[in-house]
Specification:
Chain lengths: 386, 474
Amino acid sequence: MNKKGNLFLVALIFAVCAGLCLVSFWKEDHIFSEQENRLLAAKPSFSVETFVSGKYSSDYEAYVTDQFPGRNFFIGVKNTAEKWMGKKDSNGVYFIRGNTLIEKHAPEDVDEKRAAEQLQKLAQQAEKFSAQGHKVRIMLVPTASAVQVQKLPAFASEYDQQGYIRQLEERLFAYEDITILPVGEVLSEHREEEIYYGSDHHWTTLGAFYGWQLLSRDLGYSVPGLADYRQVTVSEDFYGTLQSKVNRRVRYDSIVKFVREGKENTEVVMDIGDGTGFSHSLYFPEKLNGKDKYAYFLGGNYGEVHIKQSRSQDRDLQDISSGKMLFLIKDSYANCLVPFLMEYYDSICMIDPRYYRADYEKLLAAYPGADVLYVYDVIHFIEDYR
Amino acid sequence: MVFSSLLFLFRFLPIFFGLYLLTPKKMKNLTLFLGSLVFYAWGEPVYVLLMLFSTVSDYFHGIWIEKSLESGHNGRAKGFLISSLVINLAMLGFFKYADFLTGSINGLFGTAIPPLALPLPIGISFYTFQTMSYTIDVYRREVKAQKNFVAFGCFVAMFPQLIAGPIVQYKMIDRQLTERKVTLEGVTDGVRRFCVGLAKKVLLANQAGLVYDTILSWPAESMSVAGTWVGILFFAFQIYFDFSGYSDMAIGLGKMLGFTFPENFRYPYMADSVTDFWRRWHITLGSWFREYVYIPLGGNRKGVKRQVLNLLFVWMLTGIWHGAEWNFLFWGLWFGIWLAAEKLFLLSFLQKIPSVFRHIYAMLLVLAGWAMFSQTEADQLFLVLKAMAGFAQGGFCTQEVLYQLSSNMGLLILLCLGSTPLPARLAFRVKEQFLKESRITAKVLETAVFGIMFFFALAFLVDSTYNPFLYYRF
């Protein structure tokens, strides 16, 4: 190359190295990353033992990387560069035309053995509940990658979530009091609509509405149509979990609330079992100011929640004497479905087994005759159902 | 510490280099030596003593050998040389090969010698080879013994090439240890080279590695013929850009400090025979074995039979140098056999066929070699080789393979282009063109190009620990 030096180049590289070094010494450390929803590595304290064992070095290295100035910016740059290069996915998320995202669930990402065990466990529990006189309904919702297949990149191979639901159907076929709601098929019919968020792994309120239609038919309740609801957009700048994973700009999602015409003023009382408190609404507008805007529905996930129509005279939420009751075993997919459920049920006892530490089967014993409903997305069911 | 880490780039490098520039010329070696010890001790707080022991041992051995030679005691000089070699090889053997040996003995004779399970000291294969070259060359009177301990310490411990080469023979940098200059030109060259190496490692090798890891992690029933070839192809790119990127960074850092290290790679995937490949791949290791093993064994001067034996022996050593596993031995032997065949008759045949076919021939053998190199488990290696030969449970090709190919097509094109001299030639042409017009424009443009490369490498480095935990914290 040319014989002369290039002072610009040398100055640039060393200024960047020395500059960022100084900045990272000066800058205050972040404790928590909202984007990643995890605690960042903190500066390790030095001791001879930790140094000799090599722990100090590796902890310090993690600390430098986690606290690097402009960390989120650089991560966005990386993912954008990958997209330019034609990569179809990054960090387990597909880039979809229209600048949206769908979470990837390749067959090798799903532990087949665990999937089979979970299915068995659910079937046995449903049989048990049914034998105790409960009507059991199971709503396993496939995630976007198993429904909006038309959006996936060419050759993408996905875990067969619909097939998994069929396995469950076959397993429980013989039980009259156990219904597997074919929500996957219904969602597939509506796959061109916005039934999933483009930046988050949940289904939208519209998706949940189709689930509700299906359920209401099974309940013998008059099946509502879309026209029965007024759709209120409560947020237009929702960035969910998938956006966090790729950390680049995508299309913002809107969060929509469905209000049943004529039932605007129905009141509920919600009691979060761990003593966190009461609420008179199923919606939490203050959550729309934070990062996790999906928590607008029910305020997030809790181990045990009791919900009751406030038109009931009895204010004791644990009271089980009257009305139609539901025992709901769920993950966060249920959160935007629950407002629909409250059109039919007088009270709901809602258990998220991920956070409920005791044995919820014992709790159910206190609700004789209650309907039991499982609402999970297939992937989290396989990972989290207990 | 590796060069491609934020810790090195934004802690060690600016601090060390600042100190190095501030140090007066006569003391620069001391700064370099101490800095290198810090660099090494960061990753090997205990084994740094082993490296120091090796340094002290060969420092004295060099002096003793020279003294004995000067006073005419050639036998004693030979004794010191042997002592130096035994110490180095014993260290290497104990830390690198002991468990391999006991494991193989246990396997063969059903014994149950417990393994030592010691972690391999970083860079031991490199620095023992470097110090051996020193004592051998002193004995051969090719170099003077280094009396200055700090200068000798620099040669052994110098951080740029300490961990992954190039393998610098003492005679190559003998003078530079005491008479070298830090110039803007040298630092510029070094920065350029370092940026190229960093980009090769972070932007190409790591990404190729992810594809390889994905494809080879599939279970046997979804392994396909095309998939295995594609997977091994990505492995080939990963190992090339990883290793040559690291060498580039080492050479670049050397230049910044005023050293000129030997080149280690010359577009190995442009080779048109196995012989040619080994002239382009890990050149400093090849030269080391040629100079200190192959030629002393008689090389090609003792008849064809002996030459073939020498080749096989040297390439078995080359193989096992890469790791204490059988697959590395076979990998070396595989090349030894083809090299011998080429020496005997294949090369003269190859010269008669069109260069495209020569190239394909060489690459097929090299890829088969990488298959052996990449699989340390015997049954997995067998499956991979079987698949490459056309027998795979997943058939010829699967949807997953097509997905990986389509998703990584851009990367694959970059990898292919990066393996040829085209990008460097193009850059050179463009720069010449701009230089004719305006020197400043050319320099600004160059700065922009390298700056962007560095910027993207940085983004990928920061991302390496990006791990969103998206569900609730307990």
